[in-house]
Amino acid sequence: MKAAKSKKIKVLVVMGTRPEVIKLAPVIHALRTYSEKEKAQKRKNKKLKTGRTFETLVCLTGQHREMVEPFLKVFGLKPDYDLQVMEPNQHLAEVASKVLLGMKKILSVEKPDWVLVQGDTTSALAAALAAFYSRVKVGHVEAGLRTEDRFNPFPEEINRRLITHLADLHFAPTRQARENLLREGICGERILVTGNTVVDALKMILRKAKGKGWLKNLRLIKEDIDGQNFHKDKIKSALKTGRRKDGKIEVEDGSRTEKTSGSGDSGKRNDHQEQEGEKIKKLKEALFSEGSRSQGRKKLILVTAHRRESFGKGMEEICRAILRIVDKVKEVEVVFPVHLNPNVRRVVLRYLAGRERIYLVEPVNYFTFVQLMRRASLILTDSGGIQEEAPSLGVPVVVMREKTERPEAVEAGVAWIGGTRADKIEALAVRLLKKVESSEFRRRLRGRNPFGDGRASRRILRALG
């Protein structure tokens, strides 16, 4: 019997932030793996299963460049296009306009059958709008999430609502997300409940998890002897101006002048390096503590915080909560990969730098982050994706936001809303730290995971054909 003629479907996958890379990587992998298998069948003169193959292109917008590149490496992704839209302190409107214009050129050259976007970022919205303008079909991965509050989270709630009305296919992670879309008038035939691709990504990484090589990616934030952090570009700028005073470089930071060590402080720097080495040693001991409960086994808390709506007072309350928890539970050790956004860094360093049992580390790659999640007793986060990942690992989550677009996690009893009040976050954390002493509690969390079985990418692939 003559083999079916293969139909090539061109898919352009667009991403700009860490969560997009994590959640789209397994989709890209599935598309490319499937196409290679189909080509191999054709070479062997076997009948093709479906008569289709995919040509998959990846476009990186560059919305969060520094934080995205390590994640691309972990998943073995090399973008075909890079819009390089990021500039310091630019407005969301500037990000959107640059992505729109960059996408216009790519779409006119490549003429894809589909543009795939994920979630609710400004990159995703602008890419979907550009595809609509070019009459290219849009597939929305992780469609249908809602808080019903247009400013919480901001701008994500409006971004995803707008993408909904630009998309041709909606890949909803849960039945509740599907119900949200149906209530908004989206045709049921255009909605597919797939599970969340983050579970697929997590399983990909866990298959690679061997040894302790991931530890080399843990780097404490470089602080001077006063516990302050400085970006290299600020130091270089100050060096160019030659403004020195008493052997120190003066660095302007908004309304105040801060100082970083000059060449005359080598002795102090050496002392600081020794202290840093000791702190890294303690961190490793905490990560691999095997003591019994009676010996005071370490309880690791993993923290992430970066939401715009938390900037200012909210971030200060989060830091106060961490200090209270560490003070109240003596066996607690905190690891906090600190986001690069200055609105996060300034507050976190001011409150938490130099504190005992609190480790402020540079952003880590996904492989390292998964390992930290596996070892955590509790996660405090304002992230969306972590609410989906942690249940697969049996780790309870305190959501440091007033609302979540993932109510399934709260309803399933795997996440708890802590808001951004220090007293509420502290109370929840202390209560949950007591519960995780029971291995049965963690087993129950894994059994309640509402976000899928790790096959979401395959379901998306089938729908695109």
What is the SS-derived class? Answer: alpha/beta
N-end to C-end Cα span: 23 Å
- Please outline the major beta sheet: 7 strands, parallel
The counted number of beta strands is 16
Shape: globular
Estimated helix fraction: 40-55%
CATH topology of the largest domain: Rossmann fold
Major β-sheet strand ordering: 3-2-1-4-5-6-7
CATH homologous superfamily identity of the largest domain: Glycogen Phosphorylase B
Strand-residue fraction?
A: 15-25%
Domains (count):
2
* Contiguous uncertain segments of 5+ residues: 224-263, 290-296
What would you report as the Rg, rounded to the nearest angstrom? 24 Å
CATH top level class name of the largest domain: Alpha Beta
Mean pLDDT: 84
Task: Please work out how many helical segments DSSP would assign.
Answer: 17
Which second-level CATH architecture of the largest domain applies?
3-Layer(aba) Sandwich
Describe this structure as you would to a colleague.
This protein is α/β, with parallel strands linked by helices. The chain folds into two domains: 7-193, Rossmann fold, CATH 3.40.50.2000; 279-447, Rossmann fold, CATH 3.40.50. The chain has 17 helices and 16 strands. The strands form three sheets. The chain has a seven-stranded parallel beta sheet with strand order 3-2-1-4-5-6-7, sandwiched between helices. A six-stranded parallel beta sheet has the order 13-12-11-14-15-16, with helices on both faces. A three-stranded antiparallel beta sheet has the order 8-9-10, with helices on one face. Strand 4, helix 4 and strand 5 form a beta-alpha-beta unit. Helix 1 crosses helix 7 (197-208) and helix 10 packs parallel to helix 15 (422-435). The longest helix has 26 residues, at 18-43. The chain is globular and about 60 Å long. It starts with 6 loop residues before the first strand and ends with a helix. Mean pLDDT is 84; it is low at 224-263 and 290-296.
